[in-house]
Every structure is written in C-alpha cells, then in structure tokens.
Write a structure and sequence with these properties.
The chain is α+β, with helices and mostly antiparallel strands and about 200 residues long. It folds into three domains: about 80 residues, Chitinase A, domain 3 (Roll), CATH 3.10.50; about 45 residues, Thrombin, subunit H; about 60 residues, Alpha-Beta Plaits, CATH 3.30.70. Helices cover about 20% and strands about 40% of the residues. It contains four helices and eleven strands. A four-stranded antiparallel sheet has the order 2-1-8-3. A four-stranded antiparallel sheet has the order 4-7-6-5. Helix 3 runs antiparallel to helix 4. The protein is globular and about 65 Å long. The two termini are about 40 Å apart.
Amino acid sequence: MQKGDFIRISYVGRVKETDEVFDKGERIPIVAGEGFVISGLDEAILGMSVGERKIVEIPPEKAFGKRDPNLVKLIPLSDFKKNDITPYPGMVVKADNFYGRVLSVGSGRVKVDFNHPLAGKVLEYEVEINEKIESGEEKVKALLEFFTGMKEAEVKLNENTAELKVKRQIPEHVKQRLSTAIKQYVGVKEVVISEIF
C-alpha cells in the first residue's frame, strides 16, 4: 500500500500490558497514510499488500501520546455540587470541552485525569488489508461510510462533480468534512449531497 490508496482493513487493537481489547473493526474503509487511523498503524499499513496480516506494536508517541501529569487536575468538590453532580471514582466528566475521568474524591477536592484513557500505553494491533478500492464511485462510498457509517448511497461521478443520494440526513458539520475529503482524495471540484426522504 502507498500513501493515498483507498483500502479496507480489519483490525483488533489491544493494550499490550493487559491484553485488553479496546477497539476492533471489520472491513473499515480508510485512505492509507492520511491520518484516518493512529500514526503508528498508518505507518505499518504502508508497504503491506492485500490479504497480508500483521501484528504491530505501537509506542505511546505514535498512538495516543504520553501521559501528561499537568492534565491531572484538582477541582473543588463545591464546583460539582453547584451543578448537582456527585462525583465518584471512574466517573467521566466534561469541563471546558475536555473529557476527564475522576480518579478520587476526598478532602473537599476531586482529582480528575484529562489524559486520553490510552495515553502512555503501548498498543498492539493485529491488522489485515482486505481489499484495495479502485473505482471513483467506490472511493466516494468508502468516504461516506467512514464519516457517517452509511453503506447505501447512489453515487454519480464525472470529472468535476460527485453526486450522492442518501436515505437519511447527515449533520451539517459531517457534510462539510465529507465534502472536503471527497474533493481532496477523489479529485472533484464540487460535491452535491441529496437527502432522499
């Protein structure tokens, strides 16, 4: 596989230390080398062939980053009480658009870890390249599936325009990202999305 190839992959992601499965996918469409998966997995995919299966060990810096002790915060318990929240260890909270996990509650303070749950962990992925996607229409459908989960769509493609007819509504911000990706990776100038009810 080379950077920019459209492919489908199947994978199982585990935390190496505990062998805990945290992610798995079957025949997921991605664009190789373009950040559709974590960087360590992206690098491993480049150079693989269709049908090849590989186990890859990924260090934290090529996965979810190293743990940052500065992202562990002490928050006054009164801040939670003001919002009728009773924090407990393991609870997921949102503050300033960041999600964190409560580590402990005591002495009028709540310790919250805003690191990604997999930060600092060595990961192991078993990955297989299922197929390479060649046709323009199938590439558009692959991007639609990646961004929305939709597998059914009518797609017409000419050299300047990609037209998609879908059977459910797509949120506006997702349409923007999808359209940008189609223009970038399929090489059209405009994208027309019709939602059919």
